């Protein structure tokens, strides 16, 4: 049996989401039943949450009375049932928007951003990490390192930045700024942008660089998506044909994706471990029979690397961490950058299915992303909640982000120095200080989640049959 996994760390694109929720009857409690039953069935921490215990209610009446407290507030019920250990489970009232997000389909202008608060002022500014090729931001020549502090001439603050950036308005403007010393100064330049539906090509950049008679294959990969598999194969095939000596995979902005793609990539990077255990999943006690091993797979392209270099950041998460953790017992995996996110758990998308054929309840659009499993490597190691530590630490500086793939881009330059193909240089002041103005990074707008597709035969079926007044709960 093969599950399809998605691993995601939230990062920010300027996008808009439509609230398409359908309200329920005040008497049915069907959404509340869906929430409780789904969590009781599959939640990783189900055994440690008293209100999710199998014997929590002694009658249908007691169960109904409990749910009635949350009538019309299924999100409040959901949050009340989460373990204190859980950082990632969440619920949505529009599963269509969720499905688009899983496929990296966004309504966006094309900017990937870091958001930060300026000191303790409450003011917020945004730094462009990268721009999607072919997007409106790309057409308007927005580039990596650009900074803006207001949207539609309204200053961003900790109170309004989410509303401004997540607005449904397709047309908007941003007002640019520059860092001068320790001050953020407006430039007077305003750029008009348009959001459109856009699917990201997560193979963002790749090239072969020859330095001192050694060939280095560099790949910035921003998401383990199904649509990227062909591009990945083509890139690694080119690296193989070029006979690269070193492989660098830049995962600093990779928030995750499908585990099937992570397995394929790991298998192409290596090639000498076919059919060996790559990773294994771990469910709760009730679903332990679902635990499964995932093996390296034979691929037409294989680099047979025994060492790779991975550029990481606190945004490196989930499938990225699975790739690192899964390869670690077999080859040298050298991390350059920052400690990773620490996303070692995964969730299923749980819909309110009303039959075993996967028919969704037509009365509402709610769906859940409850944590359902952990992912361990072949040695059983899965305890990296605090992230995977970098071997060589270097944080990005907003005043010198550099050009992705250029040998003087700070993180890539550091990687080449660690590799031994460049002579180490003294750290510049901006690298030592990270930034010239005081700021703290804010939490991203999007939810952070790792997703697993349930096979049809394992779908959770919310019961819809009339229950006798004193009947036992399923």
Counting DSSP H or I runs of 4 or more residues, the number of helices is 11
Per DSSP E runs of 2 or more residues, the count of β-strands stands at: 24
Per CATH, which architecture of the domain at 203-346 and 357-434? Alpha-Beta Complex
- Beta fraction of the residues? 25-35%
Describe the main β-sheet briefly: 9 strands, antiparallel
The CATH superfamily of the domain at 203-346 and 357-434 turns out to be 2-enoyl-CoA Hydratase, Chain A, domain 1
Distance between the termini: 26 Å
Quaternary structure type: single chain
Q: What is the CATH domain class of the domain at 203-346 and 357-434?
A: Alpha Beta
- Low-confidence runs of at least 5 consecutive residues: 1-26, 445-458, 461-474
Mean pLDDT: 85
The level of helicity is: 10-25%
Q: Return the structural class.
A: alpha+beta
Gyration radius from CA atoms, angstroms: 24 Å
What name is given to the CATH topology of the domain at 203-346 and 357-434? 2-enoyl-CoA Hydratase, Chain A, domain 1
Q: What is the molecular shape?
A: globular
